[in-house]
Task: inverse folding
């Protein structure tokens, strides 16, 4: 059974149709990739799922129940959150406090317990060395990692990752992919928006392609990225050979 | 951590010294001067809970000060209630009004929230000024103001203001390190991220606003009984809000002790130079604000802990 069902989502911003009748299902405990050119509606889709935007029509079902009119913090407590493409950490708090906030409010834990588990998460993500620094003092790849740590801290079972692996060097990218695999082993369900095809091919079991707000392909990555429409809309020739 | 504990000890010692101060049998003037300073420290600290911790800069905080003044005055003179009960009701009334107003104004951010709250405070002032004439009743007494019974001596108000101040600072101190405080700081830094992280941002924002309002309302109530005469143009004056803002900024907005420190310095300066330089005083206040914003964005407490690494 699918844990998350996106049903006929349509969203317009003025004359721009950002999403047009997009539907798909997400199985529990896997990695789903979403690719598409800039402006295809990937981030809009994420923002609707986590409750930042309301769709014009359509609905998102979580375990069969509609999430209409729920606010992001309510959806977060149900078990769905996202990491933002443009990182927005709590700048005057330390990295550890950033994650502590997520544990305190996402999982309703006490402060002491939250601090302890925050340290575990930072250890797991290999950024324990910066836990006492404010996010303004660390590099962008690490800020992205903090963003992920915050999402993990909420205890959400479904995490939407919006270009969390962008702008990393090969070593960091490999480490990021390893973290995604580790999260999968822990039973998390991940939806990954990414332009780095190497990462998409390396971790995703299924792939959805959006273009101009429409779903143009869905399936196993190796098949999808040989699809003629996908190649034309986004990839260009021979992207899958790598 | 050790430096922190040392700092708290200093504050506690100052508090004990202030408790013992009346034993020196000082003149009435000193009682009144200290009471005035405690009032401002309390107002600035209460204002800081919404504006400093949650980052929603309230330009209409004087509304709750005025509401507290008038609620206490009316309950005592027209309702015949005792002072203690009147003040308590003033605080509760202020927080209820704030919950209602906050529900709508706190959807706005930054300058828009500031404008909305400023307009709210001015509107309340106009209502109190014109209500009687418009509805042909005798309730708020319009611009005549209300005179309250004279009862207690200076020492009573000295201890009352000191006690309330202690309570407000303790409240801010506890908020700063518990879950509520983390919610407010998360909202201040990145409201969107806070919401995504599971923080019910609207509830915490409105709760902080209502808390600030109730504390300011209580101080207003005490102020009415202390001064024994209030009028709308005085207790709803926008200058009171400006004072709260400048004091908190000067001391260190968003910190526990910053507003206390800022209010101490500025209300003392007000007392010393305000009387002599009645017309240039506001100008001096403006210059202080400019200097703080430009050179001391974290205020006096920021200056003290400038290089201190968090941890």
Result:
């Amino acid at each position: 059974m699918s844990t998350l069902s996106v049903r006929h989502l349509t969203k317009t911003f003025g004359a721009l149709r950002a999403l047009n009748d997009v539907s798909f299902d997400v199985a529990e405990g896997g990695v789903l990739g979403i690719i598409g050119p800039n402006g295809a509606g990937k981030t809009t889709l994420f923002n609707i799922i986590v409750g930042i935007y309301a769709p014009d029509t359509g609905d998102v079902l979580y375990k069969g129940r509609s999430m209409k009119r729920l606010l992001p913090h309510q959806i977060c407590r149900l078990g769905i959150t996202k990491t933002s493409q443009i990182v927005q950490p709590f700048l005057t708090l330390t990295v550890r406090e950033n994650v502590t906030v997520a544990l305190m409010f996402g999982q309703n834990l006490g402060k002491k317990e939250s601090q302890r588990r925050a340290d575990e998460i930072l250890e797991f993500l290999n950024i324990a060395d910066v836990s006492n620094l404010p996010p303004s003092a660390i590099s962008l790849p690490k800020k992205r990692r903090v963003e992920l740590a915050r999402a993990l801290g909420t205890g959400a079972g479904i995490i939407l990752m919006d270009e969390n692996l962008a702008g990393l060097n090969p070593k960091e990218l490999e480490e990021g992919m390893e973290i995604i695999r580790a999260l999968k082993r822990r039973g998390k369900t991940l939806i990954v928006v990414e332009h780095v095809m190497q990462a998409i091919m390396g971790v995703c079991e299924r792939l959805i392609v959006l273009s101009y707000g429409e779903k143009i392909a869905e399936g196993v990555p190796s098949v999808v990225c040989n699809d003629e429409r996908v190649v034309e809309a986004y990839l260009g020739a021979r992207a899958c050979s790598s | 951590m050790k430096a922190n504990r040392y700092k708290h000890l200093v504050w506690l010692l100052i508090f004990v010294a202030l408790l013992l101060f009346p034993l020196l049998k000082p003149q009435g003037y000193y009682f009144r001067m200290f009471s005035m300073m405690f009032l401002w420290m309390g107002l600035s600290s209460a204002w800081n809970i919404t504006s400093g911790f949650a980052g929603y800069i309230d330009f209409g905080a004087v509304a709750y000060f005025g509401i507290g003044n008038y609620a206490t005055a009316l309950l005592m003179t027209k309702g015949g209630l005792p002072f203690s009960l009147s003040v308590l009701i003033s605080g509760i009334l202020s927080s209820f009004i704030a919950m209602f107003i906050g529900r709508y104004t706190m959807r706005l951010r930054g300058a828009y929230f500031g404008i909305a709250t400023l307009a709210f405070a001015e509107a309340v002032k106009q209502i109190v000024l014109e209500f009687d004439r418009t509805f042909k009743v005798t309730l708020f007494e319009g611009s005549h103001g209300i005179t309250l019974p004279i009862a207690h001596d200076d020492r009573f108000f000295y201890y009352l203001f000191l006690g309330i101040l202690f309570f407000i600072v303790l409240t801010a101190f506890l908020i700063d390190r518990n879950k509520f405080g983390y919610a407010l700081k998360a909202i201040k830094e990145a409201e969107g991220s806070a919401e995504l992280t599971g923080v019910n941002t609207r509830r915490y924002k409105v709760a902080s606003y209502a808390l600030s309002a109730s504390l300011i309302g209580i101080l207003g109530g005490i102020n009415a009984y202390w001064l024994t005469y209030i009028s709308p143009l005085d207790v709803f004056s926008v200058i009171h809000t400006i004072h709260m803002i400048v004091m908190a900024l000067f001391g260190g907005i968003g910190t526990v002790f910053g507003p206390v420190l800022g209010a101490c310095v500025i209300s003392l300066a007000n007392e010393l130079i305000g009387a002599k330089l009645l017309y240039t005083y506001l100008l001096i206040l403006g210059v202080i604000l400019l200097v703080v914003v430009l050179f001391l964005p974290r205020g006096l407490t920021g200056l003290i802990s400038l290089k201190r690494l968090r941890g």
In short: Chain A has two domains: 1-79+158-166+176-242, 80-155. The radius of gyration of chain A is 18 Å.
